[in-house]
Design a protein that fits this description.
This protein is 78% helix and 7% strand. It has 310 residues and is mainly α. It has a domain of 90 residues. A three-stranded antiparallel sheet has the order 2-1-3, with helices on one face. The chain is elongated and about 200 Å long. The protein starts with a helix and ends with a strand. About 2% of the residues have low confidence.
């Protein structure tokens, strides 16, 4: 109930009580001792009513003050709750942002793990291929050793034949047989020496080729990503091009890395994207090449995958 309404009701009751007292007093025309006593009582009643009115006014004022104080505390409590809710909303937003960042970091780590696993698989395949080649070389060396052993056996057989011939033949025949055996032994030693030298040269050449292939593979791992980054830095996205497009580019470079020719090897399906990729390669000229001209020669004709979204 409104406190103003309470005040009006109290005032109304007091006014009616006072009017009743005055109205009762107006009917006593001839004062008697009893009437005078009653008028004294009535005056006291009117005074009491006035006193009660002041107390009621004070009580109403106190009630209104309590109401205002209660309203102030309620507003203060509402403001505190609003501040607390705002702080909680801000904290929830920060937690949401942090979770999104953690999810992004986890995705990047997963991509790095996949790339590392792929690289390890490639290295394992290369190691197996080298192991197979080594086994082939060992088998070839074994066959050559067997051939050398056969030559040695023939030499020994020839030597034995020479000894038998010396016992049976005359001096001239013995000398001829001895010279023949000597020539055969020299030929066998020369053949063995030549085979050993050929084997050493072949092993050295294969080792040099393996090292060259490894150097070229390492150079590709280093320079092809650098070329792609340089091309992507010079790429300008055409308006309206969708995300996730890629194309394969056939690129031919000059001795200093200048782009001499570039063409589409596998289209993305969007001509505007393909043309922008070709322009990016031309703007990126010259592309980086190794200092070693032999290794650089292996990188002057390339097929690059242009995928700016990767």
């Amino acid at each position: 109930m409104d406190w103003h309404m309470v005040r009006y009701l109290v005032y109304s009751v007091l006014l009616h009580a006072g009017a009743g007292v005055l109205f009762g007093a107006s009917f006593s025309v001839t004062p008697t001792p009893t009437d005078r006593g009653q008028r004294d009582d009535e005056r006291q009643a009117v005074q009491a009513v006035a006193v009660d009115s002041q107390e009621v006014e004070q009580a109403v004022e106190r009630l209104e003050q309590q109401k205002r104080e209660a309203e102030r505390k309620r507003q203060q409590r509402l403001q505190e709750l609003e501040d607390k809710a705002q702080a909680q909303r801000q904290e929830l937003e920060e937690l949401r942002t942090e979770r999104q960042q953690e999810a992004q970091r986890e995705q990047e780590l997963e991509q790095q793990r996949e790339q590392l696993a792929k690289k390890q698989q490639e290295l394992e395949q290369q190691r197996q291929a080298e192991q197979e080649r080594l086994q082939e070389l060992r088998a070839q060396r074994k066959a050559e050793k067997e051939e050398l052993q056969q030559l040695q056996d023939k030499r020994e057989a020839a030597e034995q034949a020479r000894e038998r011939a010396e016992k049976k033949a005359e001096a001239a025949e013995e000398e001829a047989a001895r010279q023949k055996a000597k020539r055969e032994a020299e030929q066998a030693r020369q053949r063995q020496k030549e085979l050993e030298q050929q084997l050493q040269e072949q092993l050295a050449e294969e080792e040099q080729q393996r090292q060259r292939q490894q150097a070229v593979a390492e150079a590709k791992d280093d320079y092809i990503p650098a070329m792609k980054r340089r091309i992507e830095d010079n790429w300008q996205r055409p308006p309206g091009i969708a995300e996730g497009l890629s194309a394969q580019l056939q690129v031919r470079l000059g001795p200093s890395g200048e782009v001499s020719q570039v063409q589409i090897a596998a289209s993305s399906g969007t001509p505007a994207f393909d043309e922008s990729a070709v322009r990016a390669v031309k703007r990126a000229s010259p592309l980086p090449l190794p200092d070693d001209p032999d290794i650089a020669r292996e990188l002057r004709e390339l097929t690059l995958t242009f995928d700016p979204s990767s």
